[in-house]
Amino acid sequence: MAAGLLATGPLPALAQGVLKPVQAVIVNDTANPVPVSVVAAPSPTTVVCTGKLGGSGLGGPITTGIAAINNSGFVCSGGATSIDVSRIIYTPDLGNFVSEHIIAFRATVTHRNEESGFEPGDILAVLTDGAPDATVVRPFRFDSMASGRFVNVVTGSSGIQGFNAVISGTILLIGAPAQ
Q1: From which domain of life does this come (predicted)?
Q2: Is 86 helix (H, G, I), strand (E, B) or coil?
Q3: Which of 44, 85, 106, 112 has the lowest CB atom count within 10 Å?
Q4: Domain count, the chain
């Protein structure tokens, strides 16, 4: 049957919709063209800022460490320096050190304008191997030119006795350019 349709060329088709009993005939040929609008793709407004973390390894199958990175350690796409962050992603890959034997992780991502410590109110996201990206828990404007730093509590596990876990990683901030 498909070959018969292809061989006969364009044919009228029944319009499909909510009111199927009301059937209209649609013909799309040179005598009755269906108008089509071409819409330009929106300009890219998403910016990704990437920061590489240091590493932690305590010589056991589970390791926990604090990995800090200053605002100036991030590189943003498109030359942006300030973004309104909507999502954060953490990956134990591509950090300043090689992560080894990591099958599970948890990263608590915090940010402070001061250079020391962190408080529960500074938390932006808690990320795990099952959910490595998340929406930020509070509005957050990141400025790579301003003072401040990310302090991340990172825990990783090899899950196997005798295979020592070493964890590093990369934080990605995703958002729109700040206006």
Answers
A1: Bacteria
A2: strand
A3: 44
A4: 1
